[in-house]
Write a structure and sequence with these properties.
Layout: H1 7-11, H2 28-43, E1 46-47, H3 48-55, H4 59-71, E2 75-80, E3 90-94, E4 100-106, E5 111-117, E6 122-128, H5 136-154, E7 161-168, E8 172-173, E9 177-178, H6 193-201, E10 205-209, H7 210-221, E11 230-235, E12 239-245, E13 248-249, H8 280-284, H9 286-295, H10 307-319, H11 323-347, E14 351-355, H12 357-377, E15 387-390, H13 397-411
Parallel strand pairs: 4-7, 7-10, 11-14, 14-15
Antiparallel strand pairs: 1-3, 2-3, 4-5, 5-6, 8-9, 11-12, 12-13
Helix pairs in contact: 3-4, 5-6, 7-13, 9-10, 9-11, 10-11, 10-12, 11-12
The protein binds zinc ion.
Residues 262, 272, 274, 276, 279, 281-282 line the site of zinc ion.
Length: 421
Amino acid sequence: MAPAGGGAAAGHGAAGRYRGAVPLALSAPTQSRTMILDVVRASRTISRVELATATGLTQATVSTVVRRLIDEGLVVEVGRGASTGGKPRTLLAIEPTARYALGVQLGTDGTTFVLADLGGAIVSRWRRGALVGTDPGHAVGTIAAEVDGIVERSGIDRRRLTGLGVVAPGPLQAATRIVLAQPPMTAWVDFPVRERLEAATRLPVLLDNDATATAAGLYWADGIAPTTTLAALFMGQGVGAGLLTGGRVFRGASGNAGEVGHVTVDLDGPVCWCGNRGCVEALAGPAAVVERARAAGVDLGDDDRPVLAAFGALARLALAGDRVALDLVEDSARYLAVAAHTLVNVVDPDLLVLTGPAFAVAGPLYLPVVAQHVAEHRFARGSGPVQVRLSTHGPESAALGAATLVLQAELAPRGAEAPLT
Ligand SMILES: [Zn+2]
């Protein structure tokens, strides 16, 4: 069912705006605007003088950009900070209600929906059954109906809803379709998911990899500084990673960067669903661990229980001290630590965050193993520590990231036309 009214997206003529990735080479004015928005959001409140210092822009440029952002309603003045000798400085903040975006994570264990505001806060979250095992055409209709429902329930002005981000496990092609999938998602391969969703929701739709999106979500919602190089190690049913530097996700040439779950760690290991042998995911991802636990006689509920639910049950047993469960999870953690170590050596981040629904329950068991391994084995270990921590948005990190990518794409390229003086 399509929503009534064209909304803000139609006003921008924006359906199809996300053909391809967000432009990497932004013009100088757009860079200034994006940089200022990022720093204001990360700082919560900040003065114009502090903005100039933090961004390296001149005070004149900061003043011009901020004036435009205030005129557009994206930034507001929220009071005065402490005086440093002169008159107290006016503080700026993001106006969170200026824009909203929806994020949807298509998971094998369920579908997570998030409505996020411009500040990166989750206004509403909800889950429903998995749609990936259903006919994709039916799923598109269901998502469109959910979008209508949340707009109605939340009471937000539809003109402020910038778009819909949808994330799925990779690999994807050109942000339009899924090119390879494991059961039960195989029916989605080559289905024109973005095109159909844009038609059904009359919103711009962005399709991206779930792990990639988590990096953007963390950046947006957790106040991470724009100078941070971030690696997000994501574990849902699969294992992947999202990478972010300079405030922007790194997608690679085809949008599939960061697939650290498909690094071979055993040349003679089991065949992975991706077609290769001995991948981290095949040896130590939730599906492999659950299968091993069942073979060892651990009671994880019905055999047809979704993998992540069974994995959560195993993690809870391990956290309660069950020796068999603990050994299985710790064995998995050793492999995930190798994946993290690989990621850190390749990307050289300041910050490594463990995120995704599997880490939401089992994270406390994985964190110390991963952190210790990275600290001891990282190639650049003499150059200072990498901060390793758990995400606070584990279950909905990918859906939040999907919404974030929409907000980021909405704000980055526009306003670039007029040169700043
Ligand atoms: Zn693989």
